Amino acid sequence: MESFSQVHEDTEEKLGRELAENEMEFLHWVYQRYAEEQQHVGT
Predict the structure, then answer these.
(1) 14-43 burial string, b = 16+ CB within 10 Å, else e?
(2) In 10 A of CB 7, how many CB atoms?
(3) Which of 10, 16, 17, 42 sits in a 20 to 30 Å window from 23, CA-based?
């Protein structure tokens, strides 16, 4: 699984700009939910 910093970097690269604070918060929220889901799938 990619680290949050890698997902953040990839997202900014695809958008061609830096993320706004609210976008960063949303991306972090989505990443956390994804990580939690992956843990549940693995058990």
Answers:
(1) eeeeeeeeeeeeebeeebeeeeeeeeeeee
(2) 16
(3) 42
